[in-house]
């Protein structure tokens, strides 16, 4: 009798091993699960029955999620180490630790009678009970919003465009599988909202990254050269007598003022009410269009040269990114008129602002030109409102509420209204505002995360 029992167990083990081997063979010829057009296959009756046992709504959410994550890992190919790292970071941020269980109770997995028991014993992802003590606090949307908009770049240091887009893609893949398998039906609406946010995030994160690299733009670079850089890119053998080191450009020579065209009073630079422009597409297909626009406008490599490569890169005053004082004065005079040179810096503040609206700037006196055949660049007024985002613990200490900054139109073409910008601004007494340095650009769904 004992021998028959032993044979039965051995046959059961062999059958299970063979089934596992067959599954591995099939998996080699199957999709990786990360394809752009990948759709979860329809569940068979047996799979529906198995899922019912694994994800019974009467079970605690913690148990259901641990089982699902284990099976999700097995149903995806993790050959890309970046994807695996991003997924582990996302789980950890949501309160799920990854590691081998210390105690398995001494039960042989090969002898487990059902899928639920096997999933429980072999799971390597564990939810922190204290962080999910109250199931009412579970919010898939908040985790996605905060992880993608704040934690990913500010805490984890993920800044490459491809990695930012990949993070949004894999989280959406995970959440869609969660819905497909009906793991947490009580949170279905919340999970769907999180999926929709991932679609937006894939476009916005790339757009914000490219804007942060392109800022402050040609006009702002010229203004910085006049008011804040103090001849940083001037030839060493001569010093410009046209620049006042007290932070003023009032000492521009009389000949320069005479040659320039007349302009409207300095009050024309002050903020005005502006209608909201239409936002860009939220589909992933918009990303290549953004990329083409930036490649034509920025005229710089996707990555900044490092110190090691400086020997092969010429850091000269190109009158686009870097200006000599003379180049900057000529450019600003052509674009804004000579009154833009007569201001003084009266204030400087580090602010977190939100893009409220963008409208064409119609007060220009001349179209900027710096070379034959160059297409003139249209300027726009960007209305920026000082804003404390959701999750902010401390309000900004400033009396300013809203102001306007002039940018090239191409800088903001693919930027959504509501995008956040953290930067240092210089305020002039002639109404101009200079974007002196940019700390970060965050998407419209930005929420601060306090670690």
UniProtKB/TrEMBL annotation:
Any Gene Ontology biological process: siRNA-mediated pericentric heterochromatin formation
Listed Basic and acidic residues bias regions: 1-10
Coiled coil location: none
GO molecular function: endoribonuclease inhibitor activity
GO CC annotation: ARC complex; cytoplasm
Biased composition (Basic residues): 11-28
InterPro entries in alphabetical order: Arb1 (IPR018606)
Signal sequence interval, chain numbering: none
Region annotated Disordered, chain positions: 1-29
Lineage: superkingdom: Eukaryota
Protein name: Argonaute binding protein 1
Originating organism: Schizosaccharomyces japonicus (strain yFS275 / FY16936) (Fission yeast)
Phylogenetic classification of the source organism: Eukaryota, Fungi, Dikarya, Ascomycota, Taphrinomycotina
């Amino acid at each position: 009798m004992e021998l028959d029992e032993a044979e039965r167990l051995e046959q059961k083990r062999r059958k299970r091993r063979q089934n596992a081997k067959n599954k591995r063979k099939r998996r080699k010829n199957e999709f990786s699960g990360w394809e752009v057009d990948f759709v979860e296959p329809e569940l068979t009756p047996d799979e529906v029955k198995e899922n019912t046992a694994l994800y019974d709504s009467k079970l605690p959410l913690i148990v259901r999620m641990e089982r699902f994550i284990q099976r999700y890992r097995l149903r995806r190919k993790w050959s890309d180490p970046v994807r695996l790292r991003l997924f582990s970071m996302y789980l950890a941020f949501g309160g799920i630790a990854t590691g081998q269980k210390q105690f398995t109770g001494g039960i042989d997995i090969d002898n487990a009678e059902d899928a639920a028991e096997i999933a429980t014993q072999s799971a390597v992802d564990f939810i922190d009970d204290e962080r999910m003590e109250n199931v009412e606090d579970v919010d898939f949307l908040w985790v996605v919003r905060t992880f993608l908009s704040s934690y990913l770049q500010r805490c984890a240091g993920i800044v490459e465009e491809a990695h930012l887009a990949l993070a949004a893609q894999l989280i959406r893949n995970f959440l869609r599988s969660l819905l497909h398998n009906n793991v947490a039906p009580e949170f279905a609406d919340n999970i769907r909202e999180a999926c929709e946010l991932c679609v937006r995030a894939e476009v916005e994160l790339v757009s914000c990254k490219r804007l942060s690299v392109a800022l402050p733009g040609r006009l702002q670079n010229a203004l910085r050269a006049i008011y804040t850089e103090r001849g940083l890119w001037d030839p060493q053998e001569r010093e410009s007598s046209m620049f006042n080191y007290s932070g003023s450009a009032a000492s521009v020579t009389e000949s320069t003022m005479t040659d320039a065209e007349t302009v409207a009073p300095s009050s024309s630079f002050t903020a005005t009410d502006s209608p909201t422009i239409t936002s860009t597409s939220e589909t992933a297909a918009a990303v290549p269009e953004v990329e083409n626009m930036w490649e034509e406008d920025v005229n710089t490599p996707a990555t900044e040269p490092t110190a090691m490569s400086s020997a092969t890169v010429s850091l000269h005053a190109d009158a686009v990114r870097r200006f000599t004082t003379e180049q900057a004065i000529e450019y600003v005079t052509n674009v804004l008129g000579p009154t833009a040179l007569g201001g003084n810096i009266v204030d400087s503040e580090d602010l977190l602002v939100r893009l409220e609206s963008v409208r064409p700037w119609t007060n220009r006196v001349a179209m900027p030109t710096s070379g034959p055949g160059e297409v003139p660049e249209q300027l726009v007024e960007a209305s920026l409102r000082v804003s404390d985002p959701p999750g902010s613990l401390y309000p900004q200490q400033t009396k300013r509420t809203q102001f306007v900054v002039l940018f090239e139109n191409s800088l903001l073409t693919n930027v959504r209204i509501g995008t956040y910008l953290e930067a240092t601004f210089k305020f002039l007494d002639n109404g101009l505002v200079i974007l002196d340095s940019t700390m970060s650009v965050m998407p419209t769904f930005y929420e601060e995360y306090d670690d």
